[in-house]
Amino acid sequence: MSEDVRELDLRGLRCPLPALRTRRALSRSAPRTRFLVIADDPLAGIDIPHLCRSEGHRLIDTSEDAGARRFLIERAEET
After folding, report:
1. Catalytic residue among 15, 25, 36, 68
2. pTM attached to this predicted model
3. Domain spanning 5-74, CATH class
4. Which residues contact 33 (CB under 8 A, 6 or more apart)?
5. CA 48: distance to chain centroid?
6. What count of other Cβ atoms lies within 10 Å of the Cβ of residue 50?
7. Measured between alpha carbons, how far is 66 from 59 in angstroms, rounded to an integer?
8. Which of 15, 33, 61, 64 is deepest in the core (most CB within 10 A)?
């Protein structure tokens, strides 16, 4: 497991921006890079897991804290 986790704070952004910015960050990173994505848009709870499934990224964990959802994502080997 990689110890390096990049944080992507997307609080305050509304649909579809959290998913689009997550996609852009993943596409610009090396395979197996991990991101902690933080978003407070309610639709991010649907959009970000869907993005991971459709592009083959690994959604490792999700949680909610203080009104924000947190997604730990590992970039796929190839997208």
Report:
1. 15
2. 0.92
3. alpha beta
4. 2, 4, 6, 26, 74, 75
5. 6
6. 12
7. 21
8. 33
All structural domains of the chain with their residue ranges = 5-74
Give me the half-sphere count of Cα atoms (radius 13 Å) on the Cβ side of residue 60: 15
Has 15 been annotated as catalytic?
Answer: yes
**Residues 72/61, Cβ–Cβ less than 8 Å:** yes
* Amino acid in the structure at residue 75: R
Tell me the C-alpha distance between 5 and 58, whole Å: 14
| CB proximity list for 16: less than 8 A, separation 6 or greater | 43, 47
For residues 12-27, average pLDDT? 97
Q: Once rounded to an integer, what is the mean pLDDT over residues 40-57? A: 97
